[in-house]
Amino acid sequence: MKAMVLEEYGKPLILREVEIPDFGKDEVLVKVRAAGVCGTDLKIWEGKVPTKTLPLIPGHEIAGEVVAIGENVVDFEVGDEVVISFYIPCGSCSFCRAGRYTICENFEGRMGFERDGGFAEYVAVPQKCLIHKPEKISFIQAAVVPDAIATCYHALVTRARVKDSDVVLMMGGGGGLGLHAIQIAKWLGARVIGVDVSEKKLELMKECGADLVLDANNEYLPDRVFEYTLGRGVNCVVEFVCSESSVEQSFRVLGRGSRLVLVAYSPQVKFDALRAHLFEIDILSTRAAGKQDIEECLKLVLEGKVRPVIGNVIELEELNFGFQMLREGNLKGRLVVKVQN
Ligand SMILES: [Zn+2]
Ligand SMILES: [Zn+2]
Fold first, then answer.
1. Domain 161-285, what fold?
2. What pLDDT, in 10s, does the model give residues 186-203?
3. Three state DSSP letters for 84-121
4. Which numeric CATH code is attached to 2-146+289-338?
């Protein structure tokens, strides 16, 4: 089969002809139809995320079709269309039992990180990672769900519990995740302020339903935000940037009893602990999405509540070019690789 293989960190992936992977008794073989490309793939490519030793086939946002099943597989059969939840939790630790699969104590790995992923024609997947894909959602759209949509759902619904009386500010809301977060917040009934730095991204945020869009380079955020919220500040900031300056700006607009939700992350970020204290600001981190988040998001897409925003669709062989587009930040939504027909 064809696969894009990472053989050396920071060097272009190489198109290789490799063996179709073996699969275990509790696993299936999936013919990859589409795979999303993510900022995390760039971090993996740079060697900044712990993964298995190289060579590695990355790609963790996978939609495809089951073409063979292991002997213990009961819930899926050949021909089923599936979306893959890329975390492989143990299913039995206290966190898994509480539904917090992405902080499992006994991880068995992640597709495209510790195990080969979806930038290949076929991938072996544990049965417990499979989710049935509704027929009406295309493979290209479905590939956007496991991370770009479900991570936002996990952040806004599961972690931050955004409600209809909230004003939510999306810091860096014009990217592949933020554009879906805006739609989810609107579905929850919140008012949304989108912040980004280019005319194109402001336009996209408006199209996704943002009530107010602000250019962080050209406007002084606190003035505009306090005007919009009648002096109260926002109830929630969702950070898709997490740089020193973005977090500083976030703290200037957070109101009393608000929360800061860190979707993006960085090992060192300074924040104003005095203001956090005075206003009782909750700082919430959020890690990817569990299977139940992905299932809910498939329903939202099916019902037309959330529209997958796809910037570009490329072929498997064009993946290095895709990485370059992602690095340059010129995409108008999520990048998806169309792998097989
Ligand atoms: Zn991702
Ligand atoms: Zn577990």
1. Rossmann fold (3.40.50)
2. 999 999 999 999 999 999
3. ECCECCCCCCHHHHCCCHHHCCCCCCEECCCECCCCEC
4. 3.90.180.10
